[in-house]
Amino acid sequence: MRTYCTVAVLLMLAGPSAHARQSADAAPQHHLMPVPASVRIEAGRLPLDKSFAVAVTRHRDARLLRGIERALRRLQARTGIEFSHEIKKDAATAKLAIEVAGPGEAVQSIAEDESYSLNVTAQQATLKAPTVVGALRGLETFLQLVARDAAGSFLPLAEITDKPRFPWRGLLIDVCRHWQPVEVIKRNLDALAAVKLNVFHWHLSEDQGFRVESRRYPKLHELGSDGLYYTQAQIREVVAYARDRGIRVVPEFDVPGHATTWFVGYPRYASAGGPYAIVREFGIFDGTFNPTREEVYRFLDGFIGEMAALFPDAYWHIGGDEVNNKQWNASRAIAAFKKRRGLKDNAALQAYFNQRLSRILSKHGKRMVGWDEILHADLPKNTVVQSWRGQKSLSEGARQGFNGILSAGYYLDAMETSAFHYAVDPLPAANGLDAAQAGRILGGEVCMWGELITPENIDSRIWPRTAAIAERLWSMREVADVDDMHRRLDVVSLQLEELGLTHLSGPDTMLRRLAGTEDIEPLRALLRLVEPLSLGQRMRARRATQLTPLTSLGDIACPDAPARRELAALVAAFLRTAPRDPASGEALAREFRAWVELGRSLAAMAERAPLLRDAEGLAADLAELGAAGQEALTFLSEGKTSPKEWTASKLALLDRAAAHKGFLRLAVVSSLRQLIVAAGSSGSAGRSLEPRGHSPDGP
Amino acid sequence: MRTYCTVAVLLMLAGPSAHARQSADAAPQHHLMPVPASVRIEAGRLPLDKSFAVAVTRHRDARLLRGIERALRRLQARTGIEFSHEIKKDAATAKLAIEVAGPGEAVQSIAEDESYSLNVTAQQATLKAPTVVGALRGLETFLQLVARDAAGSFLPLAEITDKPRFPWRGLLIDVCRHWQPVEVIKRNLDALAAVKLNVFHWHLSEDQGFRVESRRYPKLHELGSDGLYYTQAQIREVVAYARDRGIRVVPEFDVPGHATTWFVGYPRYASAGGPYAIVREFGIFDGTFNPTREEVYRFLDGFIGEMAALFPDAYWHIGGDEVNNKQWNASRAIAAFKKRRGLKDNAALQAYFNQRLSRILSKHGKRMVGWDEILHADLPKNTVVQSWRGQKSLSEGARQGFNGILSAGYYLDAMETSAFHYAVDPLPAANGLDAAQAGRILGGEVCMWGELITPENIDSRIWPRTAAIAERLWSMREVADVDDMHRRLDVVSLQLEELGLTHLSGPDTMLRRLAGTEDIEPLRALLRLVEPLSLGQRMRARRATQLTPLTSLGDIACPDAPARRELAALVAAFLRTAPRDPASGEALAREFRAWVELGRSLAAMAERAPLLRDAEGLAADLAELGAAGQEALTFLSEGKTSPKEWTASKLALLDRAAAHKGFLRLAVVSSLRQLIVAAGSSGSAGRSLEPRGHSPDGP
């Protein structure tokens, strides 16, 4: 690593006002996400024009060339500049010279070297990497550096050296509870690569669906999938697509629980007789593999052997979570087996099952990954434990000698903000682990569970929030300025669209269907202000199944609503000064007037369109909140303290408005609360009150 | 066919005011597109609720069940109603009873029976069809019938019997000049099925790309495709996907011209020595198969034999267009061959080649289709001629005994309006053909050529205009009310989004990248008013190649801009009455004021964003046009005649504004011209002037 200070460290040292300071010093800002290990941006530019060309001077292979070609297409599309795609050999004639030492691993492992350096002078950009994967990471940084102004497109001068903090940085997609076709997976792989994530954890079997074609056991997909499964050709296609982008594919076939769809075609491997049917509800179900019968292991051996040829990765995820034990407790044969083997409880029985499974995996060259529940002293130490229940089990595993990856705090269906996820560190500063133990924390995985996602709304659940987590997993621990993260996240979010992601366009599409018209402005305005419920809240509000249409406002609204941050910033600016800042006061007044108006148009719209009834309660709330906000502004601007009864009635209104309506909750209540509380307490300017409007929800 | 009048016939008899009359009579309107052969809608409703269920009472097979499942998902998504997907056997308990006589053809042919009847009473909808394909067509009609109001979702009472006018109703997609991945093809197949088109013509080889994996001749895709080709597994997947939707897949491998990429890997089959490289320019190039060498036919025999296993359709498209003859004229060996065989010119040589090819195709069970140029008396009469040069060659072929399909007038890259294409009939009333000859006109194909399309903008070029052509090819000739077509097209356009089409969301996505911000309102407002240039105009304005980024405003703007129709309607309403209609006058004034404002904000935006410079000329024009429009309204509202000099200067302005700026042209000039001319000629109320702003452009 080079010796000069990184922007990240500068930011950390300078504290909360670093952002402002940095602009004051006129040090050029960058939009890189994740922030590189070391980055220096300087004044000056490398202009981009039609003379642009790439040279590859050392190692070249097809994967590298394809990666460069993809980058060139994105560069062209974004800059509008037409240039040759011919890859030169002579660095002297190229605006971007790429020097790669070698191909890297034949099958990418957690040891793959992903480092690179990128140096931009006024004459040339130079990208150096020990491996093709490192070069791919560097190309993404190169694309993120591209800027434009009135004079045209250019790269700022930069010196970057970079490598990831954690070697395992993943996204899980559950394609079982709802089906996701190949194109959804591919565009998300593109997005993973754009933010330097390197693992696609493919959750392929569940009570609600078995999603892979098995030629050896065809009743798995024939009877377990409703016809919605990936052919083996498609699996190979996706694995190759991922490898082209430096992404490992870790398949998960959940056993012994969450396994109903295995038994639709093969009931004899369950711990109780069938028949079994694909489950439409969500939750934990009874169907569980029978760990006491040898034919179960022969079956799993055969299945894993077949799949091992499709999934080259060294790791294989066995699930292992949420076994409800009902079938095991009900079976006399299983009780007898436990007794015979001295297995004192069901945990011991599952550990026995996992040990058997681990040996089968070893035979096929695979290491085991499983959820928290598999943690057991008897497992081989190369097992990886994925923690979904909390950081504690991660540390506990590390102390016992197991490698671990964190997913607690990265559950997207909690519908938390980017800032919330950004704060979750797999290895926080005070972690209580020694160096060897800490080294066992391999990284983390974002989880996109499938209860409430369809191809239409999955992207808006994953993106852009996952980019913030990607930064947590790649960048140094000290990169933690939330405002700066937001600034860069907005840029990355737009750039993700060039890869085909639909997180910005999808909501409009869904709104048009819901409203039955192209005229959706009031609904777009509403979506600025509201957020969807967490999975848990939503299921409590009304239970959804695999057959529930996911096309309501609650399925369309996105977490991290834009108005949450905007309003919080305005309120903070307004309250910071005395006398009150008139500019932010006027902006707030405009916003509150718009709420009143929006309340009216939504009510009118909902009357005509039965599917918009969800918005009626919100419309009424918004009208009242807008009026209350205007009154609070008046008190504050005039330096008056609001009457106690007024404050009490408005706080009651806020409590009512904070409750969800339909499957939505307002994202702006806490900012408004700050204003109303401030209006009631004279001299409260600048007091900080409740930074967030709702408490974190568990999955 | 049943005996009561069809809506279409009513519309025709009633003339232009049918639309108004129909509403006056309170006969319920429908949104069906294409209009069925016979349809009667009546007052009353079949309500849709969670008790909804489907019964299949007679023939059932996997294809039918999959089709029903897809329809149920769309119905659920649109209505928000959750209901069981279990298919019953007892019609009595079902809201939709489906009775299909049999599976239909194993390989769908042009003789497949696509008819169906759909009867909706207050208790039940009954869909009857002789084949699964007929049932699929009927399910689309069922979905189009779904309506909703304040009381909820329902079907109107209806009696429909339906069958297509033409058996060959297709869409060509050129995936060669620009690559289109599988998901683009699939979503467009979904859309074809939604408007009852039944042929996907897959243009798979060109000078710019060879897009299919060949195992027998792997250098075809390895060297001819830049790595952008369909694997054989993907071809099978697409063909199966199409069959599931009642769509035939007709592959086109263009020979002997447009063939450069065959020769990149196999130069010895060309008429002149290599080397050959993938062509990046667009046009007509020299590389042409050598029709004089036997090894060429052995090669084509081998290739066709391999592909015949992938493409089950009875037809095979050989292209055959635009042979430039250069290589043939330059070769002494070819001259000698012609002399030896008595082939008097290159047309005769190509006919010889086509006859040889026809025999090879016969051997593999295929019939030949080719473009106009293949028309030659010596070809077998089961050859199908696809006419791109005009209706004349279609009739000529029919007279000679050949079957024909029309594509002239259906070229989407001409960027014409829906109304323009809608007026093009493969078999107009005055066709000069006898019954047997007329029977040889099989239908038509919409053509989406690939010079200026990417996965990002292809949908907005194809849709919704192709739905209007689909109606021309399915519905009776007399279904020709343009206003009614527009009314229904707007509904279908929205419904296409539920299938994943991006014709409405794609432009926003592209605008965000162009502007570098989510705040794209001024650009959206501009896109309401402008249209892209035709391929010819665009290439004359600035030559594009395969490497030109297609991300400018001209690539984003859509044909058939909404304001074209809206403004024309307002102007017509305003001019129709004396004194002038104040409501439409005020609406026009608002519009013109908005243009002035828009001109300003676009100019400001373009200053900051170099990629928006294209909009600067338009911004200036809009500001001037808006002012002129307001002045014209004042003259007209006050009943004054404008001074001659004023009129002259405004007409000069209109001429300037009618010229394209960048790759865009204003779609509203002709409506404004009507106003300005009317302001200059007192007493001109109601005069009809120039209905369209630009003349049809050739491709």
Commentary on this structure:
Two copies of one chain form a homodimer. Helices cover 44% and strands 14% of the residues of chain A. Chain A is α/β, with parallel strands linked by helices and 699 residues long. Chain A has three domains: 125 residues, Chitobiase/beta-hexosaminidase domain 2-like (Chitobiase, domain 2), CATH 3.30.379; 330 residues, Alpha-Beta Barrel (TIM Barrel), CATH 3.20.20.80; 178 residues, no CATH class. In chain A, the strands form three sheets. In chain A, strands 1, 2, 3, 4, 5, 6, 7 and 8 form an eight-stranded mixed β-sheet that branches. The first copy, chain A, has an eight-stranded parallel barrel with strand order 9-10-12-13-14-15-16-17, surrounded by five helices.
End-to-end gap of chain A: 39 Å
Total E-strand runs of chain A: 19
- Principal-axis shape of chain A equals globular
**Going by CATH, what is the homologous superfamily of the largest domain in chain A?**
Glycosidases
Q: Fraction of residues of chain A in helices?
A: 40-55%
Number of helices of chain A: 27
Oligomer: homodimer
Write down the CATH topology of the largest domain in chain A: TIM Barrel
Q: How many domain regions of chain A?
A: 3
What is the CATH-assigned architecture of the largest domain in chain A? Answer: Alpha-Beta Barrel
Report on the biggest sheet of chain A. 8 strands, mixed
